């Protein structure tokens, strides 16, 4: 899939997921997880199922069927590059639980290229199978999610693909915890909330064009070429409005057209945990056969995307606060106060890719 195609696909999936929540509430989504897991699924398909998914991914995966040269294929390198980049800044896990049989060659390719784990379950004991799934999910989400599956969801010849991701912001320049104060934030129902508001004054690349209904502040992460993009709707506009106009494939232009401004920046601490069933959104893109028992050729498939994003002052590395700049030396301060619902993206400027996305309407909800 080209970068532009992947951006467009992820943007539409994000819109569809938020629409399924009636355009309200928090949400997190791993675009890179979607790409890697769909690639892993496609390795094992054939016929119409393969064609449907290949049309969406926009890539030729036939070269991975060459048992002698697949390691040197363009597709393998592409998946590995994106996987390694994502693993630098997050904890990712992918798994397929299956009750039938899987070819060893598929296990080898999907494991090495997409880091897909393969766990066989006993479909004659649905309670034990559900317990194994829930235990794996709990372990990979650090105990954040329990009992996602029950025995009634287990069936014969089932395949359950799950991707989990945990991201914690690791800032290049940390917020000073001593400056964090409780301040008001207004949720998507315009209700006032007391939140832990981080404060920092420094120079930031800020995109602010009068033709757009949003502003973007880019804050560098500790990992080179990675940035957090905080997208704030203009007054009078909602997240839904912004999602209609904001373009993932324009992120590079937003960043390049930003101006370095000295800003009084306020951002609430937040955690967003989201688990989405992606079957319905994917069927809207014509990916249908793999989810229909009578057409898939292997039984029933389920796909869950689980993402947790945590943002606070310090991140993971040694403390390095921003250096104070005498305010009298700054002719004008730009106010970027995040007091209402916003979007949060993790963006790589080196390959123009949005790795993770979050919609935050209530910072206090975990």
From TrEMBL:
<dbReference type="InterPro" id="IPR023796">
    <property type="entry name" value="Serpin_dom"/>
</dbReference>
<dbReference type="InterPro" id="IPR036186">
    <property type="entry name" value="Serpin_sf"/>
</dbReference>
<dbReference type="InterPro" id="IPR000215">
    <property type="entry name" value="Serpin_fam"/>
</dbReference>
<dbReference type="InterPro" id="IPR042185">
    <property type="entry name" value="Serpin_sf_2"/>
</dbReference>
<comment type="similarity">
    <text>Belongs to the serpin family.</text>
</comment>
<dbReference type="GO" id="GO:0005615">
    <property type="term" value="C:extracellular space"/>
</dbReference>
<dbReference type="GO" id="GO:0004867">
    <property type="term" value="F:serine-type endopeptidase inhibitor activity"/>
</dbReference>
<dbReference type="InterPro" id="IPR042178">
    <property type="entry name" value="Serpin_sf_1"/>
</dbReference>
<dbReference type="Pfam" id="PF00079">
    <property type="entry name" value="Serpin"/>
</dbReference>
<feature type="domain" description="Serpin">
    <location>
        <begin position="11"/>
        <end position="363"/>
    </location>
</feature>
<protein>
    <submittedName>
        <fullName>Glia-derived nexin</fullName>
    </submittedName>
</protein>
């Amino acid at each position: 899939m080209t970068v532009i195609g992947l951006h467009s696909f992820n943007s539409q999936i994000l819109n569809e997921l938020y629409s399924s929540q009636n355009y309200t509430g928090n949400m997190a989504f791993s675009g890179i997880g979607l790409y890697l897991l769909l690639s892993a699924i496609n390795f094992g398909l054939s016929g119409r199922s393969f064609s449907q998914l290949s049309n969406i991914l926009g890539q030729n995966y036939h070269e991975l069927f060459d048992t002698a040269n697949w390691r040197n294929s363009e597709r393998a390198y592409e998946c590995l590059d994106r996987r390694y980049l994502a693993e630098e800044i997050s904890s990712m896990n992918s798994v397929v639980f299956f009750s039938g049989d899987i070819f060893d060659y598929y296990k080898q390719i999907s494991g090495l290229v997409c880091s897909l784990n393969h766990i066989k379950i006993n479909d004659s004991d649905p309670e034990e199978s559900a317990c194994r799934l829930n235990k794996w999910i709990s372990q990979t989400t650090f105990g954040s999610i329990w009992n996602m599956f029950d025995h009634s969801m287990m069936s014969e010849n089932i395949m359950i693909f799950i991707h989990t991701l945990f991201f914690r912001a690791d800032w290049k320049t940390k917020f000073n915890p001593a400056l964090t104060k409780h301040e008001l934030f207004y949720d998507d129902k315009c209700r006032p909330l007391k939140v832990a508001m981080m404060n920092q004054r420094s120079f930031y690349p800020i995109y602010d064009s009068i033709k757009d209904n949003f502003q973007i502040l880019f804050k560098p992460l500790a990992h080179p070429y990675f940035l957090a993009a905080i997208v704030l709707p203009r007054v009078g506009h909602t997240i839904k409005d912004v999602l209609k106009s904001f373009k993932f494939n324009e992120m590079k232009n937003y960043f390049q057209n930003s101006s370095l401004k000295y800003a009084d920046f306020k951002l609430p601490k937040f955690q967003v945990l989201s688990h989405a069933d992606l079957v319905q959104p994917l069927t809207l893109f014509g990916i249908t056969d793999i989810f229909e028992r009578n057409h898939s050729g292997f039984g029933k498939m389920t796909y869950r995307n689980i993402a947790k994003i945590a943002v606070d002052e310090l991140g993971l590395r040694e403390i390095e606060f921003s250096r104070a700049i005498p305010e009298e030396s700054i002719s004008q301060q730009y106010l970027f106060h995040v007091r209402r619902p916003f979007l949060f993206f993790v963006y790589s400027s080196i390959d123009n890719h949005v790795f993770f996305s979050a919609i935050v309407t209530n910072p206090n909800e975990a």
